[in-house]
Design a protein that fits this description.
heterodimer, A: 313 residues, mainly alpha, ABC transporter involved in vitamin B12 uptake, BtuC, globular, B: 262 residues, alpha/beta, Rossmann fold, 2 domains, six-stranded mixed beta sheet, four-stranded antiparallel beta sheet, 9 helices, 35% helix, 24% strand, disordered N terminus, binds adenosine-5'-triphosphate, binds magnesium ion
Chain lengths: 313, 262
């Protein structure tokens, strides 16, 4: 039993780190699903909201010795405030404007972190950040279990939203704003609200990522993470709560876990060619999916099922 | 539902318009000095294509912004400047409009669309993820009532034809229990039978206290349904009177009825 455990989970740090990454992408993907797939807000700045949380957490822990829970709360708030501001800015923009503005948010966060060296350490990095508990060898696994729990919670929430009046309001807002307004729905407030809420979630995930990497670098929040999240969600199905999970397993799961673990690539390739190739393949995959199956593997939202189930909500 | 129903103590709510103008480019589309709508239960608004009827209604709802002018809702006891409110607030005050050009929520089923219309603000908060049951219990019967009256090919699914979407648009508005319902060609594209049903339904609502302002090119509907008719041409209401008066008026005949337009 213990030998099997060790083979699957014990020895290779890759597996654990890869699964951390997987869980991050799934979690962010579920939140992006609520923004993009449900409310029609194409957020191209996921890395920014996540990074705001990550660095808020890091700065508070490293410079101010703030405890874990308070730092996590602050990370969540940082994401939420940034999301509310972004939501307010993008509420009246068209789709292209939303993409540009959210990308700008991420860029501002990135540049601020890179330049405010006193706080963030700039490119030198910020650390160290430790797990809030230490149970020896199994600390990593415990943290992984926590991440599983958090991701599961997000999935549960997203699924509930689909079956709630709130979800219906979001869908209506995303598909026909003038019509939603004419039915008394406060469109702008709804958009600011969902952006604040989901970006707070992204900030919280950022905070939870801190202890995993121990040291924070600006390079951790480049557009690569946004592209990974978008690729996973779009491939799996942007309109479906499980979309991000399916997509992430097929992308991050394949590249960051399966190939790294079980294909004996030379270290050289693994460190240099591999990440680049991965990004190229993700990009190509994204284009391919958008061209031939824009709603991804799971396809469109299934509202008529919901109606049939109304008696059982 | 509690609010938004019935006539105010001082009589019917009216919409008072003054100095309202709207231009697109150098074309003046609406230019109205003074106009009161809603004094009578059912008021018709007619006029040739391009007269500005839709634009006038959109200006009232603020789905189009006016260049100048004010629109006031007077419910007998208080006055509200609609022209200063956001569109969703206007709808909350009981002034609601159907659309001439079919509008729908892609991805929302018929039931979805109707539940959306009835759901209140406090039902739609992010933490109310178990609220659906309440909304269905509170409004399901009322919605089912409409679905029993009007026939949809797939009531449990999506509205398919333009006619079904038009009906859905109307039912959504009725579910809001408006004080004043603006109808922009509500029967265009509907069969004669359904048109009769719609007018029947509207009559019931009017009897319950709702006011109707209706734009319609099917003049049989206008003459038979309206208490008063406003005739609009080139951006202004140039004649008002009871249906027989308007029907026989030489200006109306010349500008509209006689043009072979109908
Ligand atoms: N968004 C717009 N941009 C430019 N011109 C517009 C716009 N909306 C309306 N118009 C013009 O304003 C004029 C009035 O249009 P409106 O739709 O209000 O007329 P209407 O009386 O409703 O006509 P119909 O009976 O055909 O529905 C028309 O000449 C139309 O082309
Ligand atoms: Mg019109």
């Amino acid at each position: 039993m213990s030998a099997v455990w060790d083979y699957l989970f014990g020895s290779p740090a890759f597996l654990i780190f890869g699964t951390y990454t997987l869980m991050m992408i799934v979690g962010l993907g579920i939140l992006l699903h609520l923004q993009l797939g449900v409310t029609g807000i194409g957020n191209f700045g996921v890395a920014g909201f996540w990074g705001a949380g990550l660095y808020t957490f890091g700065i508070l822990q490293v410079h101010y010795d703030v405890g874990f829970w308070l730092a996590l709360l602050a990370a969540t708030a940082a994401g939420g405030v940034l999301g509310a501001i972004a939501g307010w800015v993008i509420a009246d923009l068209d789709d292209d404007g939303v993409l540009a503005a959210t990308l700008a948010v991420a860029t501002i966060v990135f540049l601020a972190i890179e330049s405010e060296k006193d706080f963030t350490g700039g490119r030198v990095g910020l650390g160290t950040i430790d797990f809030p508990f230490d149970i020896g060898e199994r600390t990593d696994l415990a943290w992984l279990a926590i991440l599983f729990g958090v991701t599961g919670l997000l999935l549960w929430y997203a699924r509930r939203v689909h079956r709630s009046p709130y979800g219906r309001l979001l869908i209506a807002t995303g598909t026909n704003e003038p019509l939603a307004r004419s039915l008394r729905k406060p469109v702008k407030r709804t958009k600011v609200g969902i952006m604040a809420l989901t970006s707070a979630g992204m900030g919280a995930l950022g905070g939870l990522y801190g202890p995993i990497v121990h040291f924070l670098f600006p390079t951790q929040l480049t557009v690569a993470i946004t592209v990974s999240v978008i690729t996973a969600l779009v491939l799996g199905g942007q309109q479906r709560p499980w979309g991000a999970f399916i997509g992430a397993v097929l992308t991050v799961g394949l590249f960051d876990i399966a190939i790294k673990l079980y294909v004996p690539l030379p270290r050289e390739v693994l460190e240099h060619a591999f990440p680049v190739t991965k990004q190229i393949i993700f990009g190509a995959l994204l284009i391919f999916v958008l061209l031939f199956r824009p709603l991804g593997i799971l396809g469109r939202m299934r509202r008529e099922r919901h109606v049939k189930g109304l008696s059982r909500v | 539902m509690s609010e938004g129903n019935g006539s105010a103590p001082g009589g019917r709510a009216t919409i008072r318009i003054s100095g309202l103008t709207k231009s697109f480019g150098d074309q003046t589309v609406v230019d109205i000095d003074e106009l009161v709508l809603g004094a009578k239960p059912v008021e018709g608004l007619i006029g040739p294509n391009g007269a500005g009827k839709t634009t006038l209604m959109r200006l009232i709802m603020r789905s189009t912004r006016a260049d100048t002018g004010t629109v006031v809702l007077d419910d007998g006891s208080s006055e509200v400047a609609l022209s200063k409110l956001a569109p969703h607030r206007i709808a909350s005050l009981g002034v609601v409009k159907t659309n001439q050009v079919t509008q729908d929520f892609a991805g929302l089923t018929i039931w979805d669309s109707l539940l959306l219309a009835v759901a209140q603000r406090h039902d739609e908060r992010p933490h109310r993820i178990y609220r659906e049951r309440h909304v269905v219990e509170a409004y399901g019967e009322e919605i089912q009532g409409y679905l029993d009256t009007f026939e949809f090919s797939e009531p449990g699914g999506f509205a398919h034809s333009a006619g079904e979407k038009k009906l859905l648009d109307l039912i959504r508005c009725l579910l809001l229990e408006p004080k004043i319902l603006l109808l922009d060609e509500p029967t265009a594209g509907l069969s004669e039978e359904v048109t009769t049903q719609v007018i029947e339904m509207l009559r019931t609502k009017v009897a319950e206290g709702m006011s109707v302002i209706i734009v319609e090119h099917d003049l049989d509907v206008i003459w038979g349904f309206s208490d008063v008719v406003h005739f609009m041409a080139e951006g202004d209401v140039i004649l008002e009177g009871d249906p027989d008066y308007i029907r026989a008026h030489s200006t109306v005949v010349e500008k509209y009825l006689g043009s072979g337009h109908v």
